[in-house]
C-alpha cells in the first residue's frame, strides 16, 4: 500500500545521493542540513530499530555505525541494491510502511526519513496503528519529513517554489501527501502516542512519538 511512487524512486536511485547533498538546486532547501538531521534521528533511535523507506541507507549507515541493530524495509528494488552495497550490516527487506515481513525482533524504535508522506491519510492511520502494537512499551516512532503548519503555509511554500522556477518541487508539494501538522498530531494521539514536533529546516520536521509505558 502507498507504493505508487516506487517507479519514480527506481529511476531516482542512482542520482539520489547527489540530490540530498545539495547538487540539485530545486531540492537544496528541502535537504538543507540533511546529514545533521539524519544524525540527530540516529542518535535518538534505540536498538533494535525498524526503519521504513531506507532509500540509499544514509540513515541506516549512521545507526549501524553506532552498533545498533537495524532491520530496514524498502519497496524500490534499485534503492535496495544501493542500500545493500552501502550498508551490508543491515538487513533490508522488500516491503512498505504497511506490508512488511513480520520480523522476530523486540522493536524499540521505528524510524523513517523523508518517506512517510508517501502514504495517504487513511494509510498513515493504519501504519501508526500497526506500529503501536509492534513497539515495545516506552518505544518511539521517530520520523523526519516535510509537513505543512497549515494550508496558508502550504500555499506559501508552493508559491515560493513557483516563483523560483522550481516547478518539480511545486508539483511534488501539491501531489504528494504531505500532512498538516495538526492532522498528523491527531493521527498519532488517536493511536495512543504522545507526540512532539520540531522544525529542522524550511520543509523538514522531526516528529517524535512515544508509546505510553
Ligand atoms: C525521499 S526517499 C528517502 C530515503 C531515505 N530515507 C533518506 O532519508 O534519504 C523516500 C524513500 O521512501 C521509499 N518509499 C516510497 N513509498 C514507500 C512506501 N509506501 N513504504 C515505504 N517506503 C516507501 C522510496 O522508495 C524511497 O526509498
Automatic annotation (TrEMBL):
S-adenosyl-L-methionine binds at residues 53, 74, 96. Keywords: Methyltransferase, S-adenosyl-L-methionine, Transferase. GO terms for biological process: methylation. Residues 49-139 form the Methyltransferase domain. GO terms for molecular function: methyltransferase activity. It comes from the Bacteria. The keyword 4Fe-4S does not apply. The keyword Methyltransferase applies. InterPro entries: Methyltransf_25, SAM-dependent_MTases_sf, Uncharacterised_MeTfrase_YrrT. Could be a S-adenosyl-L-methionine-dependent methyltransferase. Belongs to the methyltransferase superfamily. YrrT family. This is Uncharacterized methyltransferase P9989_05800. It comes from Halobacillus naozhouensis.
Amino acid at each position: 500500500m502507498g507504493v505508487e511512487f516506487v517507479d519514480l524512486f527506481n529511476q531516482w536511485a542512482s542520482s539520489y545521493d547527489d540530490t540530498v547533498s545539495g547538487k540539485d538546486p530545486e531540492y537544496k532547501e528541502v535537504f538543507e542540513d540533511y546529514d545533521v538531521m539524519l544524525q540527530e534521528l540516529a542518535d535518538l533511535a534505540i536498538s533494535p530499530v525498524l526503519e521504513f523507506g531506507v532509500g540509499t541507507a544514509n540513515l541506516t549507515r549512521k545507526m549501524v555505525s553506532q552498533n545498533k541493530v537495524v532491520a530496514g524495509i524498502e519497496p524500490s528494488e534499485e534503492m535496495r541494491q544501493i542500500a545493500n552495497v552501502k550498508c551490508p550490516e543491515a538487513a533490508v527487506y522488500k516491503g512498505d510502511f504497511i506490508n512488511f515481513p513480520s520480523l522476530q525482533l523486540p522493536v524499540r524504535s521505528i524510524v523513517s526519513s523523508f518517506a512517510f508522506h508517501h502514504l495517504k491519510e487513511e494509510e498513515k492511520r493504519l501504519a501508526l496503528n500497526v506500529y503501536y502494537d509492534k513497539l515495545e512499551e516506552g518505544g518511539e516512532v521517530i520520523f523526519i519529513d516535510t509537513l505543512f503548519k497549515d494550508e496558508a503555509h502550504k500555499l506559501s511554500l508552493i508559491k515560493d517554489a513557483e516563483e523560483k522556477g522550481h516547478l518539480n518541487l511545486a508539483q511534488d508539494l501539491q501531489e504528494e501527501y504531505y500532512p498538516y501538522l495538526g492532522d498528523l498530531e491527531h493521527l498519532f494521539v488517536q493511536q495512543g502516542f504522545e507526540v512532539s514536533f520540531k522544525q529542522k529546516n524550511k520543509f523538514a520536521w522531526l516528529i517524535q512519538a512515544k508509546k505510553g509505558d
